[in-house]
Amino acid sequence: MEWTEEIIAQLKALWAEGLSTAEIGRRLSITKNAVVGKAHRLGLPPRPSPIRRNAKPKTAEKAETPAAATPATAQTATPAQPVKQAEAAPVGETEKQTATPPTPARSTPPAATAAPVAEEKPAKKEKSAASSKSKPKAPLRSISDPEPQKRRGPSCCWPIGDPGTPGFHFCGATPIPGKPYCEEHAQIAYVRLRDRRDNVA
DNA sequence: CCCTGATTCGC
DNA sequence: GCGAATCAGG
């Protein structure tokens, strides 16, 4: 693997975006292990992972010097989760387990595929707006949003380049109806987990 | 079962 | 440095 600046930039970008390692791997056409490994080496902030590896199964297990534990130093715990989206990061990546391929005796042919794309599973509870409620219907629109509801052409939001840099942009191609990505990118975005596994093919 | 990310260790 | 293998928690 040739970790060029560009690739690394993408990795960082996607990582920071909150995509899962597998997702990033898919985009970069590498395995998630590579992603995780590189990310770790780069010192990227660890994604919210449920596991806390402690045990040393195999080798290692050296005699740990029971030296001072030094409990002091109360470090500040993580304030909060900056991003909670986690797996739901990309637009409708939910399609993973969907599309049960064969399903014998099921008259439901292809429908299952790519149906509930941008489906919202977690109910978003947005109660009162944080920014004052004293704005029932501000007549603003001549400043920030002169022409709402116009140039609303859907476009593929596949990230290209590193967000934050001048070259970054989205695919922009016409997406498949019901999907956030164009046909080309949808194909790689929506891969059956079983199929992809760790195989990039 | 599937998913997820983290660490280890041979290369 | 790289990443597959392995581990481990949901």
Automatic annotation (TrEMBL):
Pfam families: GcrA. Residues 65-82, 105-117, 129-139 have a biased composition (Low complexity). Residues 39-159 are annotated as: Disordered. Signal peptide: none annotated. Residues 118-128 have a biased composition (Basic and acidic residues). InterPro entries: GcrA. This is GcrA cell cycle regulator. It comes from Acetobacter pomorum DM001.
